[in-house]
Specification:
Number of helices: 16
Order of helices and strands: HHHHEEHHHHHHHHHHHH
Number of strands: 2
Shape: globular
CATH topology: Farnesyl Diphosphate Synthase
Strand order of the largest sheet: 1-2
Radius of gyration: 21 Å
CATH class: Mainly Alpha
Number of domains: 1
Largest sheet: 2 strands, antiparallel
Length: about 375
């Protein structure tokens, strides 16, 4: 039975969904205020010693304020509260660190993927390439844009480390927190590398794709942020084990949904062009199952479309039709449901404070209905 059918036909949000949405929105507003305040202070500091470098801070702020789900920092905060954390200040510092880490990765990711748009606005390397052209400077505008965007990403990483360091002074669990945070940083980089290798070789099997899914999203997107909040709150080993199980399952479900949105989403809903993952040549479980199920002729059409610059809307729609028609889309949706069921089972074994439980439970329901 497809468990998603249990959630169809709702005419109004459940209480769980309403509580989750309210909690998430409240946290986002608080974090956004902290981010803007941080960047304002940094802009003033940079202006005092290198006025021209203020444009680096401005570019980072443009990305940060253009949107973003803020899921990872929200997980840090609500896992901390759920595990009994009382003082919000250290949790907010770690949440800031996680968001700056994510911004750093997004900026570099856009360069690697040759993506022109992020969150509906020009990517950082596009922004600085245009600046070069507008001023008529010497050299290649695109090279300059990419080089300066790398610096913006590096700056965001520096802010991540600084924000994380602020939290360490407030807790006796600093050694364990360091291990989790830097494991999170290393794992996602390894996952990105593996994803690029898989995209280039296109010979990956389920084991290799599962490793990418685990490192790039299962751990990075949910498991490690939840673990950071729980460790900061002083959670025990048994509690951490169950939270990691929850986090790995939800994180993988989240990435599998992103893979669907990367083909079936559009600029307005996901902040990336229609069929962006097709033109970028990403080899995901969605593509793996398509090539496995579609047959040589239709599978060949999909394979030839991967990584093709500027595919036409008709070509993208043909790929979508093949993915739907061969059953690959249903296969990935079943993978998502299986993971969300596992996450709910793991959460049911935990004793959590109400604020944290509301968010972690609500996230499962949110992902079942997610469209962006």
């Amino acid at each position: 039975m497809n468990t998603s059918s249990r959630h169809r036909g709702k005419t109004r949000p459940s209480t769980e969904a309403t509580d989750f949405a309210g909690s998430f929105d409240s946290f986002r507003k608080q974090l956004d205020a902290e981010l803007v305040s941080w960047l304002e202070r940094k802009r003033d500091a940079v202006a005092a010693y290198a006025p021209d470098a203020v444009e680096l801070v401005d570019a980072l702020e443009a990305l940060v304020t253009a949107g973003g789900k803020r899921l990872r920092p929200a997980l840090v905060y609500h896992a901390y509260r759920g595990c009994g954390g009382a003082d919000p200040a250290p949790a907010m510092s770690v949440a800031l660190a996680v968001e700056f880490l994510h911004s750093y990765l997004l900026i570099h990711d856009d360069i690697m993927d040759h993506a022109d748009v992020r969150r509906g606005v020009p990517a950082a390397h596009v922004r600085f390439g245009r600046l070069h052209r507008d001023h008529g400077w010497h050299g290649e505008a695109d090279d300059y844009g990419e080089a300066v965007a790398i610096l913006v990403g590096d700056l965001s990483h520096a802010y991540a480390v600084e924000a994380f360091s602020r939290a360490l002074g407030a807790t006796p669990r600093s050694a364990r927190l360091r291990r989790v945070f830097f494991s999170m940083s290393e794992e996602v980089i390894a996952g990105q590398h593996l994803e690029m290798r898989v995209a280039m070789s296109r010979v990956a099997g389920e084991r290799e794709l599962a490793r990418v899914l685990r490192l790039k999203s299962g751990a990075y997107s949910v498991e490690r942020p939840v673990e950071l909040g729980a460790v900061l709150a002083g959670a025990g080993d048994a509690e951490l084990s169950k939270l990691r199980r929850y986090g790995a399952a939800v994180g993988e479900a989240f990435q599998l949904q992103d893979d669907i949105l990367g083909v079936f989403g559009d600029l307005e809903t996901v902040g990336k062009p229609v069929g962006g993952d097709v033109s970028e040549g990403k080899f995901t479980f969605l593509i793996f199952h398509t090539l496995r199920l579609a047959g040589p002729e239709r599978g060949g059409i999909v394979e030839r479309s991967l990584g093709k610059p500027d595919p036409s809307p008709e070509e993208i729609e043909t790929v979508r039709d093949i993915i739907r028609g061969c059953g690959a889309l249903d296969q990935v949706r079943e993978m998502i449901e299986k993971r969300l069921d596992e996450a709910r089972e793991a959460l049911g074994e935990l004793e959590l404070r109400a604020e944290g439980r509301t968010f972690l439970e609500g996230l499962i329901g949110f992902l079942r209905e997610r469209r962006r």
